[in-house]
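Protocol step 4 of 5: obtain the predicted structure for the target chain.
Materials: sequence only (see below). No template structures provided, no constraints applied. The aim of this step is simply to have a reference model before the mutagenesis design in step 5. Sequence pasted as it appears in the construct record:
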Amino acid sequence: MATAAALRKTYFLVFGALLLLTLLTAGIAYVDLGPLSFAVALAIAMTKAALVMIFFMHLNHSEFLVKVFAGAGVLWLLHMLTFTLADYLSR
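Step 4 output (structure tokens):
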């Protein structure tokens, strides 16, 4: 079991990473990447969501079945995004 100081350090590091990724998202909004803008923003958002799920929702210390259901939720979200974008881009 990790000590309270180690857990606190981990939480602060993850919080700092989330802040940096948020600043990166805001900064990238001012850079014209053309069609890559959406992909970069989505990649940053997925990274932030993964950090929140792993550390703040304690998935790194959860049982296997909890991880399976969390993964199923992420796969369902990707499924919905894929078909929504496919419909949008085909029009």
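Step 4 remarks: The CA atoms of residues 14 and 51 lie 7 Å apart. The helical segments are 4-28, 36-56, 64-89.
Proceed to step 5.
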